[in-house]
Design goal:
The chain is α/β, with parallel strands linked by helices and 414 residues long. The chain contains 19 helices and 5 strands. The protein folds into 2 domains: 113 residues, Nucleotidyltransferase, domain 5 (2-Layer Sandwich); 218 residues, no CATH class.
């Protein structure tokens, strides 16, 4: 029976032809319409949350992606489904172009997508987005309009986007050459197969893996973590390659990179970034997992926050002070600069190379500022005293199945 079905399927496959336009039409007007109708029916009878993000595609078309979250009894899981890709400036509303993608415009288009499908707005119980003012500002934002029209709605800004901003702000305290070097190296190789092949010879000579040079992303700033690791691993091969390029080609681009790769203090900063940035990316990856991690949100944030604080502040002060009460303005609570722990590679580099006292002092002060700013940005964005998050761990399966713990729930939550 199976073999006969397989043979029939094979014959159909050979005789069935579908042109690109027809396939697009079927996907858009048949499969797409059925999917949208089915999802609309689900949202008409269920409470759900909304996740949105705006973007501009390669055709300079401004769009708003709307995703919905709801609990599905069929699978017994929380489902995240694509709802609609709303074009902000369509032919129908060309007169709105001068206003731009304002919070009012985004809010109207988002809500219209639900009302036109017959979905009751009262079913919306949650909203999530990145932390820009248009989305999350206290006044005149998408979230403020939702609070006014739907009292009791839960608003969450993206924790991963917030961590991205914390790291980005902290790195402004380091020399600009750190990021410039990464961009210059990528730019030197991106359009030249000949240069990539020449680099491979130096990689083989230095016995390092011939990995390609990665591009630092403008919008996903924490991608710099992998870029830093890749350049650090290839540092000696890159230095030999650009020495050869500077002597033979005499290009300004090659000369600038050559001088940067021979700056031992710059390599010291790369070792520091190689140690510091994973603290943010690891937390980001954890919160992007498919499992439910809201119950461990506060504990993970506290763990990372303390880890950063202990690198530049006195241990007793950090461990015996409430995290929300720790001050970054009291210099008496800081460790001496040369006793800060900034990773094994930094420690080894300082011991092996002959840096002047002024160079080391400047390096330690910049790293301390990096850590202070990072902690300050985390504290600004995360409420360590939030009564709900403090007791959220009670809802983890291990605790929630304990009858004694369940008896305490009413007194724990606000």
């Amino acid at each position: 029976m199976l073999s006969r079905t397989y043979l029939v399927t094979q014959k159909l496959h050979k005789t069935f032809h579908l042109a690109a336009q027809r396939a697009t039409a079927i996907a858009k007007h048949v499969i797409g319409d059925c999917y949208f109708e089915s999802l609309s029916e689900i949202l008409m009878r269920k409470k759900f949350s909304i996740l949105i993000d705006e973007s501009t595609d390669i055709g300079n078309v401004k769009t708003l992606c709307v995703v919905v979250c709801f609990f599905d009894e069929g699978t017994n899981r929380v489902q995240t489904r694509f709802w609609k890709l709303v074009q902000i400036f369509s032919e129908e509303n060309r007169h709105m172009v001068r206003e731009g993608a304002t919070a009012e415009r985004l809010y109207e288009e988002m809500m219209k997508s639900f009302t036109e499908a017959g979905v009751p707005l009262q079913n919306i119980v949650g909203f999530g987005s990145d932390g820009c003012n248009t989305m999350m500002g206290r006044h005149n934002s998408v979230s403020s309009r939702l609070r006014n029209d739907l009292p009791g709605i839960t608003i969450h800004r993206c924790i991963c986007h917030s961590l991205h901003l914390c790291a980005s702000e902290a790195c402004k305290q380091l020399p600009r050459q750190c990021e410039d070097l990464a961009r210059d190296i990528y730019g030197y190789f991106k359009n030249s197969a000949k240069r990539v092949a020449a680099l491979r010879e130096f990689q083989n000579f230095c016995h390092v893996e011939p990995h390609k040079i990665l591009k630092p992303s403008q919008t996903r700033w924490l991608s710099l973590t992998e870029v830093v690791k890749r350049i650090s691993a290839q540092w000696e091969a890159l230095r030999l390659f650009f020495t050869d390029q500077w002597i033979d080609a005499r290009l300004n681009a090659a000369e600038n990179i050559y001088h940067a790769l021979n700056d031992e203090s710059l390599r010291l900063y790369y070792h520091f970034l190689e140690w510091a940035l994973p603290k943010f990316t690891d937390l980001n990856q954890y919160f992007q997992s498919e499992g439910v991690v809201i119950t461990s949100l506060r504990s993970k944030m506290c763990e990372t926050y303390k880890d950063l604080l202990l690198t530049f502040m006195q241990r007793d002060y950090v461990l015996h002070t409430a995290l929300s009460q720790i001050s970054f303005n009291d210099d008496s609570k800081f460790l001496p600069l040369n006793t800060m722990y900034l990773g094994v590679k930094v420690m080894q580099k300082v011991q092996q190379s002959k840096f002047t006292p002024a160079t080391l002092t400047d390096f330690y002060m910049r790293c301390q500022k990096f850590l202070r700013v990072a902690c300050g940005e985390i504290k600004k964005r995360f409420d360590f005293d939030d009564a709900l998050l403090v007791h959220m761990s009670c809802l983890s399966p291990a605790t929630a199945t304990d009858a004694r713990a369940r008896a305490e729930y009413p007194s724990l939550f606000p």
